[in-house]
Amino acid sequence: MSDLTPFAALLAARTREPGGASVTFTIPEDWQQGRTTFGGLIATLAVQAMRDVAGGAWDAGVKLRALQVSFIGPVDKGPVRVDVQVLREGKSVRQVQALVEQGGQTAALMLGVFGAARETTVPVMAPGQPAVVKGPADSLQLPFIPGVAPNFTQHFDFRWAEGRLPFTGADSWSSRMHLRLKSEPVDAELLTVLLADTPPSPVISRFTRPTPASSVSWELELRPVADAAQGDAWWRVDTDVIAAAGGYVNQVTKLWTPGGELASIGYQVVAVYG
Predict the structure, then answer these.
(1) What is the pTM of this model?
(2) How many distinct structural domains can be found in the chain?
(3) Could you tell me if residue 50 is inside a domain?
């Protein structure tokens, strides 16, 4: 697939009626993941819509603190509408709902929690980034194989530092990856949401042939950080399956900035079709 739509260009093409509570995006084929659109992109577009509709009057210090996502139905290429509703605006915290619809069908439901920093006596607790065996230059680059790798992976540079590649029949429950977006710099908040859902579940490394896996729900907790260098800088994402039964796995993912600061913690329920 030679013609790719950069993430920034996809955002720039969005439309909204003046004063309206809906934002429409057009999703191209190169952002697809099997029969649906890459879930991280859907969530990121919803956050942008929340900002467009509700965030115009907010102070710059109001940051996305948490995002709760239910993936309900597939999102095909083409127009998709995000309807935004402000549920509550408190002194520090704003709760905003986003309903993603396509073709008259509900595709995803999200709740964004935005909050301003507050005075507190609690000291800052900043976890350190664990070391990995290999840096980006020494790690295995994940290739794009048409028909095997999802289309959206063409937009990212993946380097596998620890864990095993998908469909290698490995006895593995974890992965450690260096990654970056192949695009011009974008808003750090949006980039955090986008990158946090990028790695495949480690469970698919246990299979010996391509086997579908799909996120059912995702809870992302963000820790706004000053260090969010982009460009050629490498982020790191660590994913661990913590439980598995009945065709579902529970996993936790930590995203680290290029400077080694924790940017987000995500919890997912993933359905595995194999």
Answers:
(1) 0.95
(2) 1
(3) yes
